[in-house]
Amino acid sequence: PTTSQKQLRLAFFCFFVAIMSVRCDLINSAKEYFQDSGKKVKPVAQENKSAPAASPSPGVPTAKPSEHKATSVNVLARVGNWTITVEEFNERLNALKEAVPDFDTSSLDAKKLVLETLVRQQLLVSEAEKVGLANQKDIQAAVDEFRRTLIVQETVKNLVRDIKVSDEEASAFYEAQKTVLVEPVQWHVRSLVIDSQLKANELSTQILQGGDFAEIAKQNSIGDNAAQGGDLGFIAEAPFAEMQNAIAPLNVGEVSGVFKGPQGFYIVKVEEKKGGTPIPFEDLKKDIIDNQMMLKQQQAILDHVEKLKGETKVEIKEDLL
Fold first, then answer.
1. Which of 57, 85, 191, 250 is the most exposed place for a label (fewest CB within 10 A)?
2. At how many degrees (to 10) do helices 281-311 and 137-160 cross?
């Protein structure tokens, strides 16, 4: 790669690491939130409210961030009270490798870059927490929305975990839809365009009596392809609806009647036709299974939501919208 390409890749990489870091931190924060929420207890009322808070007992450790479960041996970096272990760092490298398969996570320089980016990010996060940015209403709302999204994702994952589509189901769907699961039809078409309906009718008669369509088009058509005998080549769809309606019922070698179009009065002839044959099941099997799987999953989710609606009081005031 050129120097500019390397710089571009580096810039993209730095940006991506930052994004992945935020994602991982959000997930860790969510996990801590759920863990801590289960441990909250009501404080014991004290008779003497003016008494100073009791100091932690020597044998009872004070609460520390979950990162401090790491031992000093496997701590890769520390920023204030925040740490990242070798295992956690490798998890982030693996996530990066999944998103960017070409990225060489075994490179020492790349690892240093990732680590430096994480350290810089944590410095900014720590500073933001000190000045109270983490308590801002919009940030709290975003964290709550992320928590809701995470819960829904996990719930849906559990709902659809065991849903499968068998080969027999895929085959049955294919057989039921075989008539529409075909190769796209293409027509090799010639067209003749005349500004007078009377003349168009006369030329139509000549063609039906055995006149050469291409020669008649060269001599009389006002269409853009007149010099090529009105040859439009292979088309999967005509340029306007009236022409498509005229072409669709024609067999190879047949000529349409006169019909109105954008430039005047038209006559078309089908020279060749291809496509329209059934696509083999094996060529469609994976797509059918994926599609049917998605439909099954959607239905399972909808059914579960309807079940919850029946078990839960739900009030919606649409007049307030």
1. 57
2. 120
104 and 215 share one domain: no
- For the stretch 194-224, pLDDT in tens is 999 999 999 999 999 999 999 999 999 999 9
**Secondary element (H or E) of residue 91:** helix 86-99
Over 90: is that where the pLDDT of 8 sits?
Answer: no
State the Cα–Cα distance between residues 48 and 50, nearest whole angstrom: 5
Does this model's pTM top 0.90?
no
Among 257, 274, 291, the domain-final residue is: 274
Q: How far apart are CA 37 and CA 41, in angstroms?
A: 9
In this predicted structure, what is the pLDDT of residue 101?
85
Please tell me the least confidently modeled range out of 100-114, 209-223, 252-266, 293-307.
Answer: 100-114
Phi and psi torsions of 85, nearest 5°: -90, 170
**297 phi and psi angles, rounded to 5 deg:** -65, -45
CATH number for position 262: 3.10.50.40
Judged by phi (left if over 0) then psi (alpha if -120 to 50, else beta), residue 230 lies in left
Full domain range(s) for residue 246: 186-274
3-class state of residue 144 by DSSP: helix
Lookup result for tokens 């309807």: 306
Q: Go through 137-152 and write b for each residue having 16 or more CB atoms within 10 A of its CB, e for each that does not.
A: eeeeeeeeebeeebee
* Pairing, β 264-274 against β 259-261: antiparallel
- CA 215-219-223 angle, 5° bins: 100
The mean pLDDT value for 75-104 works out to 89
What are the pLDDT digits (tens) for 130-163?
998 888 999 889 989 999 999 999 999 999 999 9
Total number of domains constituting the chain: 2
